[in-house]
Every structure is written in C-alpha cells, then in structure tokens.
Design a protein that fits this description.
Elements lengths: L19 H10 L17 E6 L5 E6 L12 H9 L7 E6 L12 H6 L4
Parallel strand pairs: 2-3
Antiparallel strand pairs: 1-2
Protein name: FeS assembly SUF system protein
Pfam families: FeS_assembly_P
Length: about 120
C-alpha cells in the first residue's frame, strides 16, 4: 500500500524478498528516463510505490515528477504504464501521479547523485 511518509520506493532489484515479477518491474522502470536528466526514473526517486497483485497481475505504480510543470508530465505516465505492461506476469498497470510529498533531490539514490556529479 502507498505510504506517503515512506518514499521513495528504492528496493534493490536483487532483494530476495521481491518476487521475480517485482524484480522485472523495477528493471523495466530503470529503463525509463526523464529526457532532460540522464538518470532513470527509479534512481531519481520518482517511484513512490509499486503494488503488484500476483493473483490478478494488476500493478499500481505511485510516482511523481521532478516538478508538476515538467514538460513530459503528459506522457511520462504512459511510458511507465507501457514499460511495466511489457513485463511477463503483469496484466495491467495503472499509474497514479502523486504530488505529496513533492520530489526533492534528497530522494535520488547515491548512484544517481554520482552520475549527476552531485557528490
């Protein structure tokens, strides 16, 4: 369940507690980039939660953008939906845009900060 007090969702895709489908969902998200930032949306901390129902294959992605006025705001949710729905075991993906809490640079992973020369 989405917890706005515990964001972003940044589990390692190799986490043994994740199912194979959940790992593949994370890998699919890591293949999606904000065109203005050379780091994937997962490492940027834009993913707030992933809910996968193994019985139905329904997946809910709670995410944000770096800013509400982001130029890709109208298409990024479709990119996420399309990418996640390519994962074997996912039957349907619904993307929920969240603005609270707002995204901040502190939500980026260490890897993202290194790639952007912020460390």
């Amino acid at each position: 369940m989405y917890d706005p007090d515990n964001v972003p969702y940044q589990k390692d895709p190799e986490d043994p507690t994740l199912s194979p489908v959940e790992k593949d969902i994370i890998l699919a998200l890591k293949g999606i980039y904000d065109p203005e930032i050379p780091v994937d949306i997962y490492e940027l901390g834009l993913i707030y939660n992933i809910e996968y129902d193994k019985k139905t294959g329904k997946t809910d992605i709670h995410m944000t953008l770096t800013a509400p006025g982001c130029p890709v705001a109208g298409v990024m949710p479709d990119w996420v939906k399309d990418g996640v729905e390519q994962v074997d075991g996912v039957e349907e993906c619904e993307v929920h845009m969240e603005w609270d809490p707002p995204w901040g640079m502190d939500m980026m992973t260490l890897r993202a900060k290194i790639e952007l020369n912020m460390i």
